[in-house]
Amino acid sequence: xxxxxxxxxxxxxxxxxxxxxxxxxxxxxxxxxxxxxxxxxxxxxxxxxxxxxxxxxxxxxxxxxxxxxxxxxxxxxxxxxxxxxxxxxxxxxxxxxxxxxxxxxxxxxxxxxxxxxxxxxxxxxxxxxxxxxxxxxxxxxxxxxxxxxxxxxxxxxxxxxxxxxxxxxxxxxxxxxxxxxxxxxxxxxxxxxxxxxx
Length: 198
Hints:
Layout lengths: L1 E2 L1 H6 L5 E2 L5 E4 L6 E6 L18 E21 L5 E10 L2 E6 L5 E12 L3 E4 L4 E19 L6 E5 L15 H15 L2 E2 L6
Antiparallel strand pairs: 1-12, 2-3, 3-4, 4-10, 5-8, 5-9, 5-10, 6-7, 6-11
């Protein structure tokens, strides 16, 4: 299925700004398939970085535009670790509040690093820590292949900082986010959704 910009708007789903600075747009009612956009110019998001995180789902992601730097980390738990892990507790819709996990101080060691480009597709498993950074205007389509609903996602935050729990994914002007999405569609013309994603 090919979705032009007008088709994306007609789905009736609101775009939101993830705390890590990229835009999320659900493509289905069950939140299994998302369109992600890393703007070329950074949009102010949460004040404290929690870029390193895990998921409670397995996923498949395809790069539609730009490049994605994808780094995988292994936590090494120690009392002197630079990071503390937080659990994401649901707050409203797709928004969460981060709560510290006792005894989770750790260091994070890079185990793998990738630079995915337009046309690349990769899979990533649940409960592994990673960081995904767009290099310039970047867009992906991400599909959850399995979800572990009995678990909660985690993020890593430097022990010298506290996560910004005041940030709300729906606090940014919706038209600003649509304008960034349109910049992507002006280049790629449509989002091609693989069979079985919706």
